[in-house]
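Weekly puzzle thread! Below is a chain. First person to post its structure in token form gets bragging rights.
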Amino acid sequence: MPGPWAAQRPPGRAPRPRWSRGLAQPGAFFENSSSPLMTTDLKQLLAARAELEAQIAQARAVESKAALAQIHAWIDDFGFTAQQVFPWKAPAAKKVAAKYLDEKTGATWTGRGKPPAWIQGRNRDDFLIDKPKQEPSSQAPLLAEMAAAAYRNQRR
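Winning reply:
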């Protein structure tokens, strides 16, 4: 998609170089520059960079010590606790619904962990809160008929 300059240029003509629009010719800045960085070679630049990085690390260490000292002073002055300075939440414990109920005492158990004394050595199905539904006896003959029909179809 052509930009807004496309309408200013006759069709089929290449854009003019930047230096022909009043900007410096390529390389003119570097040739006339009196900056010491422009006359150094790569090794000197890398050495200067390493020196600057060392100075930055030293300044960061000094300023971080001062900042930490200021924070400690504020904590002492105001009596902040670690929870106030760095708030955190304990992970919420998952609530598990009770699975077993002792009808005599009303005590419940989730089925996790060590079983309570009232259920130990007994059939746990007797204490289930949501007992499995028993199929009505009227469906029993139907199931028997379905099984017999499946057996007959299998023999054919």
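Puzzle host: Confirmed. Bonus trivia for everyone else. Helices lie at 28-32, 42-78, 82-85, 139-155.
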